[in-house]
Write a structure and sequence with these properties.
heterodimer, A: 164 residues, alpha/beta, 6 helices, B: 384 residues, alpha+beta, 5-stranded antiparallel β-sheet, 10 helices
Chain lengths: 164, 384
Amino acid sequence: MNQEPNIRVLLVDDEENLLEYLSKRLLKLGFTVKVTFSGEEAITAATEQHYDVAVVDLKMPGIDGVETQKRLREVQPYIQCIVLTGHGSIESALESGQEDAFQYLLKPVDYDNLLTNIEEAYKKRVELQREDFSKQLETIQRAGLGAHGMRKAIKELREIYGIE
Amino acid sequence: MESNNSLLAELKKVTQELASHKIELYQTRSYLQCILQNATDLIFATDAEDAVVSFSKGGEKVLGYSWEEIMGRPIKDFAEDRVSFGYLIATCQEEGSAVGLDVRFRHKDGKTVFCNISLLNLTNREGQRVGAVGICQDITQWKQLQEDLIRVDRLAEIGRIAAGVAHEINNPLAVINEVSGWTGEVVRDAKGLGPDDRQELEKAVAQIGGQTKRCRTITHKLLDFARDSAPVKSQFDIDELLKETISFLKPEVKYTSIKIDVNSAERPLLVNSDRRLLEQVFVNFITNAIHAVQERGEDTGHIQITAVKTNSDIEIRFQDDGVGIPADMQTKIFDLFFTTKPPGKGTGLGLPICKNIVKNLGGDITLESQVGVGTTFTVRIPIA
């Protein structure tokens, strides 16, 4: 199912049992998975390593899914968030004044639907990132830096975009 | 002669006075008559033995009895609780008047009529009691409204609690869902399982997944029900929405010969309402109609949908020739969790949700049904 080399998924949910099994299934398919049990933990994880897609529960003790999502994007502007909600419908989730997530899914979530969404979110991330990356790369090239300076600038860019 | 003349004058004067009194009496009587004929209240008079001697037209309406049926009978015969009504009369006899709140009378058809009553003694010139007059105000409707309000309040409370519960249940459900998914994968990859065991396990895991989905449907519907968001209004064509809904439901009747027709009086039938919510209502009524037809056991049936414009509303009728709804169930079908479908098929949420939606859109739902003939649900929504 997972043709892309390595999608890095950050899971955020206070329901530990859920993440235990969800992560097992995603790992089995070849995803890189990081499990965190709170928004705070997720943000710390995001400052240490790059992720492509975050799957965030809406209702958590501490900072909730909306806030987590917002702060994750502050740390990693290209991360795509899929928000899981126990609310009755997507509309009600949207009504409670949420930031634009890549997708809202209802809990309990249909696994295949989740996979499709993770893959699409990843594609969107790559697309956005490539666009900006190539633009900035052009700027660097036009800046007329020496070989050493350019290598350094590109390395910096790679770090920002999480391209290894 | 002199005395004769003065006598004549006196007589004339008395006659004149009498005539004017007569007119006054006549006027007072017709005034009273007018009150008794036109008042909506139950007004009665009794003699000293508490038997009815006068009864207002409004009273006939309140109690359902005609004037002839009531005349001469003791008034307390019509009270639900004769003993306490007797006390009320006794108080009036002793103190000259009495007031009773929420006194219950029994209507001719058996229903309870709630009245606020005030009783007043009638006395003759010597001050002896010759009867009583009672004025009763029918407050049944007001009472009912009050009870309805309490019920609506309670329902809203149940809705809130149910939504809270549903929300909490979604979390463990999500866990069960993942665990069963994982188990399925483990079984698929397991070596050393006999084919029979493998099949058994796969079936069992599929069951867990399926049943989880079933729970999910319930919790999501419940949350939908409790969701109390303001409708988002836009202008659209009812006829078009009906046709779209039907084409969406086509798969349900694919292998049957159930016919679904839409008959709109005019096209387009523009309305300013919430399209998404109304679609949900339409899906519900059409699906119910399909089930009603299928329940009859034959594979043919006809569902006729008619949309017409009245003054300020649009009426959409969903008419089926299905099994019909027995009279005693017609009031219950809009109750939360009431269902006649077998376990796992109905949630008892569809119609209450529809009722809620249509109410929020400013309309109402009525139904006509006869067992063996069919059912017609009419949804009325305001155009703007």
